[in-house]
Write a structure and sequence with these properties.
It is a single chain. By secondary structure, this protein is mainly beta. It contains two helices and 13 strands, in the order βββαβββββββαβββ. Helices cover 12% and strands 47% of the residues.
Length: 146
């Protein structure tokens, strides 16, 4: 057993296992400039909330630009807006979405959910490695990036 900084090595002569701190092996991605693919839709607050996945041909995405711009694809419509960040709180300006009617009920639900979370006002966020979670009280979204 050898601990060297963030690396733990276990060996017994026949085998060697090396463990590396997760934050070094897979560092948290930056909020800005990253394309986040939304794959989880959250309803309800805290431990009483539920997370759902919907089988879509193309995942919704959100990009928080380094210049304060916001780009959203809901799997049905596109939206653009602006944002600022203070700590783990994002303040969204008005977000304008296309006037597109979704082709089926599942897409309509996803579109409405994404627009509800990513609309003007305050949301909180957490990044854990390659996963972003956005929370607006009783609704939220979670997604991943490479």
């Amino acid at each position: 057993l050898v601990l060297d900084g963030s690396r733990l090595t276990l060996s017994n002569g026949d085998a060697i296992l090396v463990f590396l701190d997760r934050e070094i092996a897979i560092p948290d991605r930056a909020l800005t400039g990253t394309t986040w693919s939304i794959d989880t839709f959250i309803e309800g607050e805290g431990t009483g909330g539920t997370a759902s996945a919907v089988n879509l041909s193309e995942d919704p995405t959100v990009v928080f630009g380094a210049d304060g711009s916001l780009s959203v694809f809901t799997a049905c419509t596109n939206g653009v807006g602006s944002y600022t960040v203070d700590g783990n709180t994002i303040s969204l300006g008005a977000v304008g979405y296309d006037d597109v009617v979704c082709s089926d009920q599942s897409l309509g639900w996803v579109d409405a959910h994404v627009q509800q979370v990513l609309s003007e006002g305050m949301i909180t966020y957490v990044i854990d490695a390659t996963r972003l979670t956005l929370d607006r009280g009783s609704v939220g979204l979670s997604g991943h990036t490479d």
